[in-house]
Amino acid sequence: MAITICDIAKLAGVSRGTVDRVLHNRGRVDPEVEQRIKAIVQECNYQPSRAAQQLSMRRQKIRIGFLSRIDQNGFWSIVIRSANKAEQELAEYGIAIEKRYFDYCHPETQLEMINELVALGISALVIVPLNDPSICQRLKELEEQGILVILLQSEVSGFSPFCYIGSDYYVGGRTAAGLLHNFTIGRVPKILLLNGSRYLSSHSLRCKGFLDELQALGTPYALIESKDITVDPEYAYYQSCRLLEKYDDITAVYTVPDSAAAVGKAIRDSGRIGQITHIGFGMTDSTRPCILDGSLSACIGHRAEQQGYLPFSILLDYFVSGHVPEKRRILMLNDIFIKQNSVF
Questions:
Q1: Contact at 8 Å (CB) between 12 and 5?
Q2: Residues 263 and 184 occupy one common structural domain
Q3: Are the C-beta atoms of 84 and 211 separated by less than 8 Å?
Q4: DSSP, residue by residue, 278-310
C-alpha cells in the first residue's frame, strides 16, 4: 500500500498539516523538522495521489456529514474511532467530515441536526437514522438535491439510500433466540425482554426475530417486556435493577439495545450471576468483562470497526472515481462471543 501524508506525519512525529506545508513549500516549519520530513518522503518514495491532488485543488471542498449515536465505552465509541481514522485519510484528498452526535433523541431533534449539516454544504450524509416519516421525507429531499445518503445500522421505511451498512438485525434476533434456547434447554425460562427504541429499526427487528425464532423452535417460555431502556447506561442499569428486584423469578434476560454492559452490571449487583442467562449485543471493552464474569452469557457482535470505516471508504471511491458499490445493502456478519473465545 502506498504511503500517505498521515503515515509520514506519524513517522516524523508531527501533524498532518506540518507535512502538508513542507510538501507544498508553504514555510512556517522548523528547518530541522522540514529536513526530517523530506528525508522520510525520499526514503519511502512518497508519490502524491493524482486523484488526491485533483480533489484538493477543487474550489468547493467536499464535505461529508456524519450523524451518529455516541457512548463512552460501547459499540458507538468503536464506530466513531474508526470514523476518525477514515477522517484522517480523507483529509489527504481535501475531504472534510462534519460530525454531529446524539445519545438519544426524537425525530425533531435529528431533523435539526440534519439541517445543520446541510447548511454546511455537505455532498453526502452518513447517518444512523430514526425510523420516522419525517426523517424519511427529509432524506428523500436530500437525495433530490444530489446529496448522497448512507444509512448506518438502522434503516428507514420507504427510503432507498445510496447504500446501507449494518447487520441483518432480524437474523441477530433469531440468533439470540437460538442461543437462549440452547442455554436453557430442558427448562421453561421466564424471560425479561429489555426493549430498545421504537425509532430504531434495528431494535424492532431484533425483537421480532427473537420472538419468531422462539416460536419456530417450539421453546416454551414466559415473557415480561420492559419499556425502552436506550436512553443511557445509567438509565438502563437503573431500570434493570428495578425489574430484577420486582421479578425475582426471572431466569433469562434478552437485552435488545447495545446496553448489555449496564444490564450485566445490574445482574452482577443483584447477586444473580449463574441464575440468569443473559443474551445481548455489541462486543466491546465494556461487555467483555461481563462475559468473563458470567453476567453476560453470550454476546452477538456486529463488527463496529468496519461499520465506522466502510461508509467513508465507499464515498471516497465514489468521489475519486465515480465508483458505485455493487451491493447497496452491505451486511456485517453476526459474531457470537462466549467466555471461551473472549479472553484476548
A1: no
A2: yes
A3: no
A4: EEEE--STTTHHHHHHTSSSEEEE--HHHHHHH
Residue partners of 341: CB distance under 8 A and separation at least 6: none
Q: Which residues of 77-115 are buried (b: 16+ CB within 10 A; e: fewer)?
A: bbbbebbeebbbbbbbbbbebbbbebeeeebeebbebbe
Convert the pLDDT of each residue in 145-171 to its tens digit: 999 999 998 899 999 999 999 989 999
Q: Is residue 207 domain-shared with residue 94, that is, in the same domain?
A: no
Number of domains the chain is built from: 3
CA angle 332, 333, 337 (to 5 degrees): 125
> And the C-alpha cell for 154?
438502522
Residue entry with cell 433469531: 174
pTM attached to this predicted model: 0.78
In CATH, what number is assigned to the domain containing residue 32?
Answer: 1.10.260.40
Please, are residues 135 and 106 in contact by the beta-carbon 8 Å criterion?
Answer: no
* 83 is a domain residue: yes
Strands (E), 20-140: 62-69, 95-102, 124-127
Q: Which residue has the cell 445490574?
A: 266
Residues 6+ apart with CB under 8 A from 113: 67, 100, 102, 105
CATH code (residue 95): 3.40.50.2300
- Which of the given ranges, 61-75, 264-278, 313-327, has the highest pLDDT on average? 264-278
What pLDDT score does 57 carry?
Answer: 46
DSSP 273: B
Structural domain containing residue 323:
62-166+304-331
* Rounded-to-integer distance, Cα 111 and Cα 118, Å: 10
Within a domain: residue 243? yes
Taking only the tens place, the pLDDT of each residue in 215-257 is 999 999 999 999 999 888 899 999 999 999 999 999 999 999 9
In a domain, 55, yes or no: no
Domain annotation covers residue 343: no
Please check whether residues 210 and 270 belong to one and the same domain. Answer: yes
- Examine the domain organization and report whether 31 and 120 are in the same domain: no
Cell of 152: 448506518
Predicted local confidence at residue 319, as pLDDT: 85
How does pLDDT run across 113-125, given as a tens digit for each residue? 999 999 999 999 9
